[in-house]
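Whiteboard transcription, Tuesday session. T.W. wrote the structure tokens on the left side:
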């Protein structure tokens, strides 16, 4: 891993209609590594992800992708610079088929090693469901589609916002395997997870947020050794 992070925020302030949610947040995703972001409900994890992606405009601070400043840029420009988003709630389009979702990502996204064939090889279930509409998919299949769509844009860093959200335990395990496989293939990622086991299984570093601020930035080992602190910050 190099010293320069592939994605870094510095002093990032953000929020909605005058109310601040993020207070000078510094996080860094190591190149080829995974940063897992933990925190109780409502601490600002999705706001951080959406601000990095340009969906929520930053009020102050910096967001750098591969050394380039992107704070204030539009989401499509940020995507073209190599940031891929697997959004909370998956955002699959009900009337579009799996194939149509993949076509759109293929057409609009960057070209690279994540081709449609490779994505379907990783997620064979999607290959069997190409003609099915978004609203005919299970939650797990929708999550796989959200991941496939993001991978097809060939990001240099992937933002995954609670990929296990709302899924049954067996399906969480399948999604976990996919996330681990993608990360093991060298994808840099920021992973927001409520599922501690999944989050830690992919992480190189762990950041815990509380009330819009980073309260703990630790290696996975350090996090595991300080169980009491983890429990106190996460309310578990
Ligand atoms: N679109 C929005 N407009 C106004 N306030 C919002 C909006 N989205 C989130 N908030 C508020 O911002 C704060 C942080 O929410 P956010 O969704 O970022 O937290 P989170 O840590 O991702 O929580 P969760 O785990 O529940 O998704 C909350 O107080 C929430 O009510």
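and on the right, the sequence the group agreed on:
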């Amino acid at each position: 891993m190099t010293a320069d992070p592939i994605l870094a925020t510095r002093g990032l302030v953000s929020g909605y209609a005058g109310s601040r949610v993020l207070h000078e947040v510094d996080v860094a995703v190591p190149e080829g590594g995974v940063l897992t972001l933990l925190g109780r409900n409502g601490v600002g994890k999705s706001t951080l992800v959406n601000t990095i992606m340009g969906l929520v405009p930053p009020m102050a601070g910096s967001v750098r992708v591969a050394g380039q400043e992107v704070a204030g840029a539009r989401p499509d420009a940020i995507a073209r610079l190599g940031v891929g988003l697997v959004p909370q709630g998956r955002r699959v389009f009900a009337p579009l088929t799996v194939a149509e979702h993949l076509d759109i990502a293929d057409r609009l996204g960057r070209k690279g090693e994540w081709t449609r064939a490779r994505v379907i090889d990783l997620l064979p279930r999607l290959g069997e469901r190409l003609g099915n509409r978004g609203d005919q998919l299970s939650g797990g299949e929708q999550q796989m589609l959200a991941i496939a769509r993001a991978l097809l844009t060939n990001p240099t860093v992937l933002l995954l916002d609670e990929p296990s959200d709302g899924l049954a335990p067996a399906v969480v395990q399948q999604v976990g395997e996919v996330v681990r496989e993608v990360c093991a293939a060298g994808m840099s990622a920021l992973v927001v997870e409520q599922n501690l086991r999944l989050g830690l299984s992919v992480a190189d570093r762990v950041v815990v947020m509380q009330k819009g601020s980073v309260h703990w930035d630790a290696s996975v080992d350090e996090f595991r050794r300080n169980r009491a602190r983890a429990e106190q910050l996460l309310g578990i």
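Someone added at the bottom: The chain is about 35% helix and 30% strand.
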